[in-house]
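Assess this one:

_____
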Amino acid sequence: MKKILITGGTGFIGRHCLPLFVEKGYEVHVVSFSKNDFSFPGVHWYQVNLLNSEEAESLVSAVGATHLLHLAWYTEHKKYWTALENHDWVRASFDLVKAFRTSGGKRAVIAGTCAEYDWSQGRCNEDITALSPATLYGACRNELRQKIEAFSKETGLSSAWARIFFVYGPAEHPNRLVSSVIASLLKGNPIPCSDGNQKRDFLYVEDVASAFVALMESDFCGAINIGSGVSVSIKDLINTIADKIGRPDLVQLGKLPVNTAEPELLIADVKKIKEKTGWSAGYSLNQGLDKTIQWWRDCLKKGDSD
């Protein structure tokens, strides 16, 4: 039986991966830093501090996984771009992969980020677009990728590096764009924003999860994008959400200044992941937004009843 160890399995993306791996017949082992109310039947849970190398190595040795999905990282909203903890996660993540291989692990998929790219290029292709991170977060992710690629070549580990673009969906951090807009509009609060002309690549979280499963099941090695391959302007995204909720009157386009440091366009070239894994997105933007809005309605209703 295929046995997988998933780090960050209680996180935004990780929790959506669990049922998919169970359905694929994996014996699923999930590590979390702290106790978490979230659970999934048939999954083995471990509370381990991955920044402690001894704890991490003991866990990896005890589980004896054949596959590794490494999603865990420092993700405190806004702070993660410049946090020194990024350096700690480079070390801890590389130690984890080394321990996994030493324990007989065969296949590893590690989460990267579109922040590794030179964002001035707009459309990001794995083989063409320059890697020039503008943030510490992106630089540390790219550093880890280089280490793992070299280690994999030396040891024969089958590994893939997944660069994630802009994810949205249920259980997303409430201060991120899509979730904050939905929650504010449902509460009847105005949405002040810039002109919203920037275009981004948004992908529903369940599609991101299915992409990770498809990548794990493939034999592809190297860096690969996970995105929709379609760009949408921020203003169109916000207006679509507002129309669905029935509160377009609350959207205040042009209320805030434009952040000139942000690129006008950022979109994934997804040709490679489609060709190498056969993956394709299962949700349109409209479908994903509908599911996310309903999730927030349910959450707010539950909160009111409490």
